[in-house]
Amino acid sequence: MRLEDVKFDAEGLVPVVVRDTATGGVAMVAWANHEAIRRTLESSRATFWSRSRRALWVKGETSGNHMKVLSVSADCDGDAILYEALLSGPACHTGQTSCFHNPLGGASESVVGTGPAGLHPPQPNVGTGPAGLHPPQPMPENFDLAPLFAVLKSRRRERPEGSYSTKLFEKGLDHILKKFGEEAAEVIVAMKNPDDDAVAGEIADVLYHLAAAMTERGIPPIAVNGALAKRRQGKP
Predict the structure, then answer these.
(1) Could you read off the pLDDT of 173-192 as tens digits, one per residue?
(2) Taking the complete model, does pTM exceed 0.70, yes or no?
(3) 3, 37, 208, 232: which has the fewest Cβ within 10 Å?
(4) Count of C-beta atoms within a 10 Å radius of residue 202
(5) In the chain, alpha helices (H)
(6) Region label for 62, one of left (φ > 0), alpha (ψ between -120 and 50) or beta (otherwise)
(7) Residue 3: alpha-carbon gap to chain centroid
């Protein structure tokens, strides 16, 4: 399909869904006009149209959380667009990885699991939060390091007193790598033992120190996401 064939609405806009290539999850939804999509295709930078400011905007131009667009596709009707993108940080302005992090509650909780073909399975412990307003949510299946990287970037920049991360960054890359090596060795030892909680804790420690080393070294997560995406595509 050509860009000229996209069905823009009366205001010349079309909704754009951004999918995180690394996880397959939906990162955000925004609007784009013809020019925004054209610029995205030319620059590989996720570009949109702000309906409130009446202006083009590029994701990450103020937050630093850029999106490298790998492909742009239209849906079967040509009235919605999909950006496949590599994310360098959280998609949401709140710091969440995805803008879709607010489970619907209220009356809908009473009918969870009654959708067609069981599309909405029952959630554990629904309604057991304080006053039933905030039901506990199941832990996500995959761990998400985007909030960790956001915190580490902030710690490295602001150096708050008393922060362990601040102490790491003040001692430099060699010290961080030494700690990473120590934690990696502890993961190996923990893996040989039956305590799963201990293994999870040691893995969390090694991931934290790896993220700290990447932050200090200036290696963004998007670089690793890109390397993994090439491997999935069978490229060298």
Answers:
(1) 999 999 999 999 999 999 99
(2) no
(3) 232
(4) 20
(5) 34-43, 146-158, 164-171, 173-191, 196-217, 221-232
(6) alpha
(7) 28
Q: How far apart are CA 66 and CA 78, in angstroms?
A: 26
Quick check: helix, strand or coil at residue 123?
coil
For residues 24 and 89, the answer to whether their CB atoms sit within 8 Å is no
Interatomic CA distance for residues 197 and 184, integer angstroms: 16
Alpha-carbon Rg for the chain, nearest whole angstrom, is: 21
Q: Which two tokens stand for residue 142?
A: 């995959």
Pair 149, 192: CB distance under 8 Å? no
Give the three-class secondary structure for 14.
Answer: strand
For residue 193, pLDDT beyond 70:
yes
| Whole-number Å distance between alpha carbons of 155 and 165 | 6
DSSP state of 6: S
Give the end-to-end CA distance of the chain in Å, rounded to a whole number: 29
